[in-house]
Amino acid sequence: DTSDSLTESNPSSAVSTPIPTRQPVSPSSEAGLVLNSDTFVNLAQALDDSKGDIDSKLFLYLTPDYQWIPSSVYRYDDFFESVRIMASEGVAGKRLYIGEDVEDGHIFGLVNMAAFLAQSMKETIQYDACDENSWDLIGGKYPLSNACGQLGQSYQDYHCSDEEKHMECPVDPNMSITAVTHAKWYGAPGPLFCGPKTEYSFTGIWDHLYECNRPWANPPETCSVYEGQKAGKYDNSAPYANNAGRTDVEGCCWWGRGVIQTSGVCNFGKLNYYLGARAAADGRDSRYPTIDFCKDPEVICSSAEYKELKWIAGLFYWMESVQTYNVDGWDYLTELRSFVEGGMTGTSFIDAVSGIVNRGCHNPPCGTGELDGRMERSDNFNKVLDAFFGGVIPQVTAPITVTETSDTSDSLTESNPSSAVSTPIPTRQPVSPSSEAGLVLNSD
Fold it and tell me: Considering Cα of 152, then 155, then 161, then 162, what sign does the dihedral take?
């Protein structure tokens, strides 16, 4: 048929993944104007031209056998659908930055996408995981209460500011959820889970050294917690605390999910408030009116109908925390433009972006410590740029911005670090009001 489709790289089969069904968009609406703009059309074409490389060279994960193969969780079609939604519709008045309204202005947007994907490849894609993995070792063991938070964190206590308090999710002590993805290395912990104390009065550990594949035992044992498991088991014989001292998993359903690991009651609450059931209940426009992110945060990873959600959650974070970042004179969009105009050289730009994502500041070490995975994130960034531009870095002129002048004439001032050049609007020929041109110009 005529619908676009994607064939996954799979040595044994070819799986056709149809483009998600889209709601019609009026060409004259704000979303329609974005989607029909030269900037978005060119960006979409460039991404589509790179689709094969994105799926086969960028969206890869490392298997337990140390082979890099295409991810089963993260695919181009779902990624592009999320870009389309967040660029045209956005959230809370914010939209995904797609570039500038100048010749080849979409290149600025592609670099924004490259920075986002560089972080995503490091955070989740390389693990083929949507749900947060249990990775915080305490005394050489993995506490099952890592679901509540790792490195001493408590996700259910990640509250919104007073101004946004009304958006956050309530903590339901009776909520019971099991993650749908997990790590896959030898003996890797099983999926995170949460539940009330009436179901789990306490929790123990994941014993990653346990040999579960013992058909000779009496009775015989198999590795059955998850598909492909080679070793390990849940051990609830005694309570074992995580880094924050928790031994239960009540109310602990707010672990990281999606491509940049959205976590905490505030972030899930904002998704629900702007995009989900809460928006619909309040009578506001809602992209996903039937999805309650507060009652089912796992929908980000489990939804077969809205596979783009794992990307939507990440882009929502990106738009709110990275694109708007402006601290101590370091402004994200200004630095992105400078990086592009300077020929896309050096690592200072991507290192700063990595610091924002990983540590919350552009110049780590800050309050939370050294930047984790600096080289990997930088290498990922270069890989994405190579995929987008074919190894040839394009030359882009500075964007043109409109400025006000002291008189009443309109003018354009080019962005130039050394001077501001006033360019008057060309002189116009007079037009008769009764001519065809005049009738058009004077029409409502």
Answer: negative
